# Entry
Amino acid sequence: MSDLLSLIIPAFNEEQMISTAYKEICKVLDDMDVSYEFIFVDDGSTDKTFDEIKALADSDKDRIHCISFSRNFGKESAIFAGLNEAKGDCCVVMDCDLQHPPAVIREMYRLWKEGFSIVEGVKKDRGSENIIHKLMAKIFYAVISSLSNIDLKDASDFVLVDRSVVKALVSMPEAAPFFRGLSRWVGFKSVKVPFDVADRKLGVSKWSTGGLIKYAIHNITIFSADPLQLVTVMGVIFIFASIFLGGEALFRYFTHTALGGFTTVIGLILLTGGIIMISLGIIGIYISQIYDEVKDRPRYIIEKRF
Ligand code: UDP
Ligand code: MG
# Structure
């Protein structure tokens, strides 16, 4: 019996892409000696994404499955819902917009057959993203890689994972999973496959700059508690600075060379005020994450499925 490969495809408002993606992916898979199934995860789309998937499934019932969320829960939740549902011996997670070239699946599958449990697609080139987006992505991956000790440079969500990895991933209870991070964190034998990010064929990217910043802060803070230590480090620096500055001020006072000093005072007040507020903000982010965890709500709610 040949292996079963599950394709997990999160889709949010992708009505224009569903059937094209399906056809392109089938073209590649039909050439390979493998049975496959599609798990589309409709992440609360407000357009006709679900109907498109349903129409496809009418022609290919056994191979197309769909989970439809009750609202938009985000790509990470969609990926985990797909992993939970997949029955494959290996699963490939990929975007619906064909920015992850289906032809790469062939190489991923070959490497899996060779014995690798995780085959990560890494971006050779970030495609036609604008320069700010590229720069932010660089900073994000540099920060998260150094804080979490996991190399996430040029990481993508285009990954093949073995059943054993899927099992490990879906057993993680965190409220807000970060697939790219967790699929490296679990360990296992892994290998990288570089690919060129294709241009999005139809539809639009779901990311705004603000959304990306939020996503970056969220994922850095769920993956590392080090920023909390920043507060302590800044406190220590400030204590040393204040000992020095205080000493200097006293010296000037006793030698009668003290100046008005208003500029220094206001400067220091603003600086310390700013640092205290940033520090409280960082603590706040972690508290809100603990809050989300203790509520123990499900990561997503499935409304329809077939
Ligand atoms: N996506 C999703 N939920 C969301 C946002 C995006 O399932 O809330 C899916 C989207 O349909 C696509 C993939 O995630 O299949 C990547 O999204 P997009 O192309 O918008 O991101 P980009 O490639 O611009 O980073
Ligand atoms: Mg895209």
